[in-house]
Amino acid sequence: MLSSRLQEVLDGRWAHVRKAARSELTGDEFVTVFGETIDEARERVTRQLRRLPADPGVAAGFPIEYGGQADPGGSVVAAEMLAQIDLSLMVKAGVQWGLFGGAVVALGTKYHHDRYLRDIISADLLGCFAMTETGHGSDVQQLRTTCTYDPATQTFDLHTPHDAARKDYIGNAARDGRMAVVFAQLISGGKRYGVHAWLVPIRDEDGKPLPGVTTGDDGHKAGLLGVDNGRLSFDHVSVPREMLLDRYGQVAPDGTYTSSIDNDVRRFFTMLGTLVRGRVVVGGSAANAAKSALTIAVRYGESRRQFGAPGEDREIALNDYLAHQRVLTTNLATAYALHFAQDELVTALHDVQTADGPVDEHRQRELESRAAGLKAAQTWHATRSIQAAREACGGAGYLAENRLPGLKADTDVFTTFEGDNTVLLQLVAKGLLTGYRDAFGSLDGWGRATFVADQVRSMVLERTAARSLIERLIDAVPGRDEEVALTNRGWHLALFEDREKHLLDGAVRRLRKGASLKPERQFDIFNDVQDHVLETARAHVDRIVLEAFVAGIDRTADDEVKALLSKVCDLYALSTVEANKGWYLEHGRLTPARSKAVTGMVNDLLRQLRPHMTTLVDAFAIPDEWLNAAILREEPARQDVMAAHDATL
Amino acid sequence: MLSSRLQEVLDGRWAHVRKAARSELTGDEFVTVFGETIDEARERVTRQLRRLPADPGVAAGFPIEYGGQADPGGSVVAAEMLAQIDLSLMVKAGVQWGLFGGAVVALGTKYHHDRYLRDIISADLLGCFAMTETGHGSDVQQLRTTCTYDPATQTFDLHTPHDAARKDYIGNAARDGRMAVVFAQLISGGKRYGVHAWLVPIRDEDGKPLPGVTTGDDGHKAGLLGVDNGRLSFDHVSVPREMLLDRYGQVAPDGTYTSSIDNDVRRFFTMLGTLVRGRVVVGGSAANAAKSALTIAVRYGESRRQFGAPGEDREIALNDYLAHQRVLTTNLATAYALHFAQDELVTALHDVQTADGPVDEHRQRELESRAAGLKAAQTWHATRSIQAAREACGGAGYLAENRLPGLKADTDVFTTFEGDNTVLLQLVAKGLLTGYRDAFGSLDGWGRATFVADQVRSMVLERTAARSLIERLIDAVPGRDEEVALTNRGWHLALFEDREKHLLDGAVRRLRKGASLKPERQFDIFNDVQDHVLETARAHVDRIVLEAFVAGIDRTADDEVKALLSKVCDLYALSTVEANKGWYLEHGRLTPARSKAVTGMVNDLLRQLRPHMTTLVDAFAIPDEWLNAAILREEPARQDVMAAHDATL
């Protein structure tokens, strides 16, 4: 079947991880439950977490010597698969093995690894990743929690100076966490060395908070009821010197601070950079949840016959309506494009994190930028397409038993956690503005605008997967004018690239002008062009995604699959151009006639893809048990059609 | 204070209803509760419903002789106010007094009024409005439930022929309803007379389903937990002849059918038309819920200081960011525009429903079209802006205690109930295509396409509130070219009107062409241009909304308020033009330079309105108790700012 062959292409390099999840994570213990109380949901998810297999599994990223597989790519894919079962379970696993365990691996040293990693992998030691504070979400450099070293006792004093400095929204903090990786300002000898992390016990074996630790419960949330998010405050808690996760900064018994990275800001962002996997997991999980929603909506739209065609002997399914296709098929095309982009990102992450020798700074920066941009694109795609799927199912889409409400509620936070999307796009833009050189600069929003404006150089096009292919396609375009076929791939690529370049040039010009007019108003200089800068970042991500899709199609051997993917890619490219047609017209990249022709071609592609809507969702290969939507089991609409045919009156 | 004077303008004609709600519906019994079980929520909402005052209240629309106020406008506004307290309560009240009670009033006659209205108004008799069936959401003409008259027993036999014909998503059906207005196909003497409604007891005094009635529970939903939506099936239930709500169609004891309206379809849509109030309430309630969300997000964005301005001694609030204003202030401008449009709609509804003498068919059709269009616009605005408000509050926006998750989940169904928005926009478009003449034609999607195409005449501009004002403003535009100021109101009006006209002309042309090429493929003729037709309807609604806003500003006496509203109107108009700039450029209505200038002016207006963001939400005058958001009480961010200032290190 075409859908099975398409599935093989989508399953890709970690197909074994995907297939193992589909066959092993089944049965009653992994079925999503509706209408649980918060306590029931937490209980269930903790139970499920402990039953997750280690191999292949989310813990596959840990070093082999402690029981992992040294397979960071596999661990990301395993987490993404959990997102199709239950998003609370995915987040809980991500907190435990990605954030908490990942921080111990990446920021700690052998002392910490030997003592804790096995229990972390087995989930005998559940932990928290305590970075975010109530008063400081995105500006993590400015955390207010302090951890002050005292050489007399050889301990740190961990302290929450005021309410806004309490750690907030921390997974595992409300109930299950026994330890936490706590981020705070390191102070020694009266001097501040920036944000570092400590491994701090927070509860005793009975689950009672330890002396000086106050835990709180974030309580009910929009979704993710199974994750016990909570708050942590510290009242002069004593932390042994050894519990500083000291890979990037060490404090000697006498209080002397040492680090291989002199600059505090740079050190902090290097530390953060090692934790990039979280963003990759969140983006991929959001996209996978969107696939579940689209699968439900497309299958429902296929079975649901809303009206008979007037004057004709044929039934009209919801999926036959152009407006329905405009929503579902275009979102499907985006889902496919993002799948290939995520695939490329996971591969890049895996290769960077398993490379021998010292870290390649340039590749690391590029990975971080791409992870940030794709996390934003995928989570916004999830918010949009799950909402669209819900509406496409009408009243049925509002019932919990049809799964869509849960998918919407659970994924809704993804646009603002693991980095707020807007802040992440600014990070992407900053990387572009400085030619990737200063990407790990301050996250203070708009700091050092004049510096940035001075540093700008021409855009560096980073095309990991298929640089030569892309250039060949662009070069082959026979003049960029009205004569080129609307489905010419090189023309699409050129349009995307041109938009990014032009937006970037314009942003640079406007920043320079602002800097010359009011050099002292750094915030205003950036803020005046914030919309332009964000659009630049979006255009960049659009290009990255299209190029990954093109490269993925190029790798596909099966001609029939390739032809179908190519049509889906046409739709992704042209519907993206259509969404930005105002810009293309403003800048003379499309004539009015050509712009109208793009809309006509999008509609034509929707018609061509109509027979393949179910093929495209079948290839996601999500087990019915995971979809767990009552409307897909009952099919009352089909019964109704038959009954209507039988009606004698 | 400016905000108080602005509030007076917004409160408008039914200010006394709004003020009474704000002062009376307070205290513990009306506070929103988070984390309830479904049973607790249903219990609470039913209790609250019974405690709602009658005057002013949602029941104000009933005739004075039965205890109402004959004030349909007041009843709509009262329902809208409930939407700011608790959306379940609003829906429950809407089901009881709007749909159920409203159907008894509008479709029944004195017999039914005398027997039931007092108990309905007092909420001693809770009831359902049982129209929608599992298999037929939007195509209500094609309901499968039958009600067959038997002259021998002088009773009807009410029957659900198969599963897909069960009534579904029916409020009050799962728990509280004792009677239901049931819509079914009337059959007498072997002949079908189309859909009619009966008043049918469904439960006994103990709440047990009556013989032949099967009730079901829709269970957990995304939101609106306090509304007991459920299912109803009938197994040959005997219904006395008198229980037919027989205002528009009567069955004599011998089975003879009579009606003042010969055509079945026309009769059905006349019956539906009397129930237009439900759509007006849903649209207004969605918009009011959006105001709550925007109030929370704007106040939070004002107090939250995310970053300090680099190199300067000033704090930057979230609201200072252009990207934040792009989301919140433009949504606020839309909220204002829709407020005036809703105000005009409620007035039109009130005037039509309290007019003496026979129904003015033309005004009734226009009211239905406007109610449909504004319901779609307002509910989509609510979905978008509540989502935006949630994201603008970051992680805090995901916690139930901050109210936004509840607002999002509760309102989410509004885009697809009381008429699916897409279907409603098609209804609007059909009205435009036939110059309002055939607006009550079949809802079968695309029936009689050739007929419609033949009937098309030039667009009839209906401008209820300020026809001459609008024309004067448009006529005063000094040539529609680059020279006109970007804030020229006549130019805005001309742009909106021109877009609607041109889209309509194009739709007509394409429909005629399709009809001549393939007259037998009626579905395809319409479906090929469905996106175009929907865009036409959206352009129509945009114009209606702008004109209502302009008329509302014109009525405002207070100069300072007027100036502020005018700026908000500039932003609404230009951000709408900006959102559609692709179209304006494609059609030569904007030059590229002018289009870029529009974006520049939008940003400029955002800056000008920055100091008024809180004024604009304060004028909504939503009591803190109703907003009930923990982040607005705690203000940890402010504490943090002070603490940061105090920090000595």
Uncertain stretches of 5 or more adjacent residues of chain A: 436-458, 636-649
What's the story with the biggest beta sheet of chain A?
6 strands, mixed
Number of helices of chain A: 24
Q: For the CA atoms, what is the radius of gyration of chain A? A: 26 Å
* Structural class determined from secondary elements of chain A: alpha+beta
The first-level CATH class of the largest domain in chain A is given as: Mainly Alpha
CATH second-level architecture of the largest domain in chain A: Up-down Bundle
* CATH third-level topology of the largest domain in chain A: Butyryl-CoA Dehydrogenase, subunit A, domain 3
Distance between the termini of chain A: 42 Å
Count of the separate structural domains of chain A: 3
The multimeric state of the shown protein is homodimer
Largest interface between protein chains, with number of residues from each side: A-B, 100 and 100 residues
Helix-strand blueprint:
2 copies of one chain form a homodimer.
Chain A: H1 2-11, H2 15-24, H3 38-51, H4 72-85, H5 87-107, H6 110-121, E1 127-130, E2 146-150, E3 155-159, E4 167-170, E5 179-188, E6 191-201, E7 213-217, E8 230-234, E9 237-240, E10 250-251, E11 257-258, H7 264-273, H8 277-303, E12 305-308, E13 315-317, H9 322-354, H10 361-392, H11 404-411, H12 421-433, H13 449-455, H14 467-475, H15 489-517, H16 522-527, H17 530-555, H18 559-579, H19 581-586, H20 592-609, H21 613-618, H22 624-627, H23 630-634, H24 636-646
Parallel strand pairs in A: 1-5, 2-5
Antiparallel strand pairs in A: 2-3, 3-9, 4-8, 5-6, 7-8, 10-11, 12-13
Helix pairs in contact in A: 2-4, 3-5, 4-5, 4-8, 4-9, 5-6, 5-8, 8-9, 8-10, 9-10, 9-17, 9-18, 9-20, 10-11, 10-12, 10-17, 12-17, 13-15, 14-15, 15-17, 15-18, 17-18, 18-20
Domain Acyl-CoA oxidase/dehydrogenase middle (chains A, B): 128-237
Protein name (chains A, B): Acyl-CoA dehydrogenase family protein
Domain Acyl-CoA dehydrogenase/oxidase N-terminal (chains A, B): 38-123
